[in-house]
Amino acid sequence: MGPVDSPARDSAAQTGRDSAAHAGIEQHSIDWVPLSERHGKPSNVGAIWFVGSLNLTGLATGVVTLSMGASLVWTVVATVLGSLFGTFFMAFHSAQGPQLGLPQLVQSRPQFGYLGAALTVWVFALVNYVAFNTSDALLSGQAMNLLTGVPNTLGYLLAAAVATVIALFGYEWIHKLNKWLTWPFVVITAAVTASALFGGGLPDDAWNAGPFELAPFMLVFVFVAGFQLGWAPYVSDYSRYLRPDVPVRSTFWWTYLPSAVSGIWVFVLGAVVSAAAPEGTDPVTALKLSADRLFGGFGTVAVVVLLVGLLSIMAINQYGGSLTMISIVDSFRPVKPTRTIRIATIGIMLAAVGTVSTLVGIDQFNWFFANVVVVLTYLFIPWTAINLVDFFFVRRGQYVVKEIFNPRGIYGRWGWRGNLAYLIGLACMAPFMVITGLFVGPVAERLGGVDCSVLVGLPVSGGLYWAFARSLDLATERRMVREEGLLDPLH
Prior knowledge:
Elements: H1 11-23, H2 44-51, H3 56-66, H4 72-94, H5 96-100, H6 109-112, H7 116-119, H8 121-148, H9 152-169, H10 171-198, H11 214-229, H12 248-275, H13 283-292, H14 298-332, H15 339-360, H16 365-394, H17 401-404, H18 416-429, E1 434-435, E2 439-440, H19 442-446, H20 453-468, H21 474-484
Antiparallel strand pairs: 1-2
Helix pairs in contact: 2-10, 2-12, 3-12, 3-16, 4-11, 4-12, 4-16, 8-9, 8-14, 8-15, 8-16, 9-14, 9-15, 10-12, 10-13, 10-14, 11-16, 13-14, 14-15, 16-18, 16-20, 18-20
Pfam families: Transp_cyt_pur
GO molecular function: transmembrane transporter activity
Protein name: Allantoin permease
């Protein structure tokens, strides 16, 4: 494929692209975004990542945290720390978008190789999209059932149809939708918060901290950090149209603060709502019960608003899943980034998520969501360390874009440095892992069930990759970057 050079686009294709672009339908997928099409301000990404958590899945995250064994007070403390920690790495990935003008996962090829990235991190990323959208599907189906009485499966299909249209229109419309939703969501979420805190329903001892127990505290910390880190494989997809002269710090802060603040807000809200609901209540019903304490019927309003927010996130997951599938296919056979292939891959996402959500069912939501987020955290911790070390410390934002799309290029088919650092990092994490009801590593078991795998995986994977990268011929790469003339040095 030709992500850079115009010969890859003949005049007829360009005419079609211009027409579709005028209609608002995005034409780019995994290809490089030309400088002539770069636009917007760093503040534009703020709405995406603020609204990104203000939805039913964000609320459900808080509901799940309270089921992990810590008191409400210690759950809140672990939630705040976990969100601040996980969002830190996610926001630095966001800063890669303007520098490269590429989707997040395509930029993994220089570390893992042309094929290596497809068979490791991209497969895990696809699982990430399907798993998170399955959680969204379960909640959207339950919300539609609660609001209209339609069966959960039909409710999901109706919600997914709207999300599919948004995903097809792509980057611009996802940004516009989240911008429009920001202030209405702030108002409704504030009202739900007031109802949850002061509307009654909380046990008398709800704010009694009780004894500190490290094991459940770390379960909550890892879970929340993992939820925030779950954005990392696609966060820069929504900043890649910004111009490359946008400073890293601007994109970082416009991602970090909105995402961390809204995440902490809705996660804590979910925990409080759960504490006031009967044991075993699903997140959607718990929200409705809590909001109705403010005044009759407000629960329905709250569910509708957070369902709309969920549609936006479903669209983002479908969009990201589509880009990942295209990236995987392109690693084996070059593809043109057309509207047709985007429609096909979004359709595949729709069918896959519908099938998995039907098999899981809303009754298994808490178990499914908790374990999926934790497992995906383990899989992406080594990747995020390697990718960020390469971008900020090894290559310092300087990549040869053409070579990223060249299967026989300088980045190779198998990046032994990235793959080896990844495998060793994952192996070192394993003894410290805790997957509730499924697996407890030997070191974690000796520590009484304390999961500190994240604190092991990050330095081991990142440190090993940095050491392995010392043998790279960076002088030649930087000369090729200058000759290509597409990217500015890292700001």
